[in-house]
Automatic annotation (TrEMBL):
Composition bias type Basic and acidic residues, residue spans: 96-109
Organism: Cnephaeus nilssonii (Northern bat)
InterPro entries: ATP-guanido_PTrfase, ATP-guanido_PTrfase_AS, ATP-guanido_PTrfase_cat, ATP-guanido_PTrfase_N, ATP-guanido_PTrfase_N_sf, Gln_synth/guanido_kin_cat_dom
Single biological process term from Gene Ontology: phosphocreatine biosynthetic process
Identification of the protein by name: Creatine kinase B-type
Annotated spans, Disordered: 96-152
Entry's EC annotation: 2.7.3.2
């Protein structure tokens, strides 16, 4: 079993109503969806790795949430979680992702040349109505995103997550079963991955295999291809910490070259001071002290199997086994979001090609897009953001409404639950699923330009009512 609250024969002896958690004071998407009836229906189910309903909801049960901040309240332990517990996950996903339906299909676009320039509309003259200037529709042009005002935009960043198919997600992985993956024969860039060993002697029927998994086969319909049950060898909980085994010693990404060339650093080999310096410089993920992360099992065997790879300029980074197998990040000072996004797309494409050449692939399906641990990151998993100085707009009563209409969200200077020091906010896209990568970056670029225009108005003591956008 992957975690201490996993179902077992003893737990199932108790009535479902006795095991159902009290969610009356909770404010998260899971609590909105889960009912006693649904709990009773799903409590005896588990994925091939042993992940259960209680594992899915534990972080949401332990963390009631903030009265004004809606958290997700659930996590996946493996790729199969979203199918085995779809009666719970589907409505959570629909609620979190703005009505995304079980029959919807996700789209992907990693071509940075599709970003467009949106020129500011003229004001005044015939555009005035009722004493206020009316904004005209912006014009479009190619090659946008490289002109965010550096007087306001301090830095730009694009990140996403990726999960390696066939392995448990970090939430579920057990360090004791990772030994085979840590040997050099599993390292990408050293040798192709060996075929999974058989889970039973060849004389045994497939139905007796310890790890049976549905895989796409030709001739499917509906949400995607038809699926056939096939034996993949050992259970996923015997193939954990995939990227660490693939990346130990810096071999996993050693094929990257040019401005992407870099080195892998294991957290276990770092001193506390070295770790803290990378954290303070916003290059490395923080230690898992958040109640949300702790309750969801993200601190298992810390810091074993965690690390960071970055290029020589520290503008392209890959986090290993934080919340997801891989967290790919492109970042730099200033407002050239197009350059950041271009590096992101190029690096991500090279990483996927590298993994495919060694017979690994990312978790993905036509409905959910790229599959990650938290349902909030499904689809693109993409967060494009800027650190931007908005001392006046940040104090304006309509700031939150403007961000909502632009489909953007704000964090403090240091991230979630931090203050905006000196009026510096972390502004990023609110959506992940149902929009392409290009569409999300475009939303950020266009929205940031408008926020800067509003800030400039307020600096001059002028009103911004005519700049308030319609809901996107």
């Amino acid at each position: 079993m992957p975690f201490s609250n996993s179902h077992n024969a003893l737990k199932l002896r108790f009535p479902a109503e006795d095991e159902y958690p009290d969610l009356s004071a909770h404010n998260n998407h899971m609590a909105k969806v889960l009912t006693p009836e649904l709990y009773a229906e799903l409590r005896a189910k588990s994925t091939p790795s042993g992940f259960t309903l209680d594992d899915v909801i534990q972080t949401g049960v332990d963390n009631p949430g903030h009265p004004f901040i809606m958290t997700v309240g659930s996590v996946a332990g493996d790729e199969e979680s979203y199918e085995v517990f779809k009666e719970l996950f589907d409505p959570i996903i629909e609620d979190r992702h703005g009505g995304y339906k079980p029959g919807d299909e996700h789209k992907t676009d990693l071509n940075p040349s599709h970003l467009q320039v949106r020129a500011a509309g003229r004001r005044g003259g015939a555009g005035r109505a009722g004493g206020r200037s009316r904004r005209r529709s912006p014009t479009l042009g190619p090659q946008g995103g490289d002109d965010l005002d550096p007087n306001y935009v301090l830095s730009s960043r694009v990140r996403t997550g990726r999960s390696i198919r066939g392995f448990c997600l970090p939430r579920t992985a057990a360090a004791g079963s990772a030994a085979p993956l840590r040997s050099s024969r599993w390292k990408v860039g050293v040798a192709p991955a060996p075929a999974p060993p058989p889970c039973l002697p060849a004389s045994e029927p497939p139905a007796a295999c310890s790890y049976l998994q549905a895989r796409p086969v030709p001739g499917g319909s509906g949400l995607g291809p038809a699926r056939a049950t096939v034996c993949l060898g050992p259970r996923p909980d015997h193939a954990d910490w995939a990227p660490t085994g693939l990346g130990a010693g810096g071999d996993a990404l050693s094929s990257l070259d040019g401005d992407l060339a870099g080195k892998y650093y294991s957290l276990k080999s770092m001193t506390d001071a070295e770790q803290q310096q990378l954290i303070d410089d916003h290059f490395l993920f923080d230690k898992p002290v958040s109640p949300l992360l702790l309750a969801s099992g993200m601190a298992r065997d810390w810091p074993d199997a965690r690390g960071i790879w970055h290029n020589d300029n520290k503008t392209f980074l890959v986090w290993i086994n934080e919340e997801d197998h891989l967290r790919v990040i492109s970042m730099q000072k200033g407002g050239n979001m197009k350059e950041v996004f271009t590096r992101f797309c190029n690096g991500l494409t090279q990483i996927e090609t590298l993994f495919k050449s060694k017979n690994y692939e990312f978790m993905w399906n036509p409905h959910l897009g790229y599959i990650l641990t938290c349902p909030s990151n499904l689809g693109t998993g993409l967060r494009a953001g800027v650190h931007i100085k908005l001392p006046h707009l940040g104090q304006h009563e309509k700031f939150a409404e403007v961000l909502k209409r632009l489909r953007l969200q704000k964090r403090g200077t240091g991230g979630v639950d931090t203050a905006a020091v000196g009026g510096v906010f972390d502004i990023s896209n609110a959506d992940r699923l149902g929009f392409s990568e290009v569409e999300l970056v475009q939303m950020v670029v266009d929205g940031v330009k408008l926020l800067i225009e509003m800030e400039q108005r307020l600096e001059q003591g002028q009103a911004i009512d005519d700049l308030i956008p319609a809901q996107k």
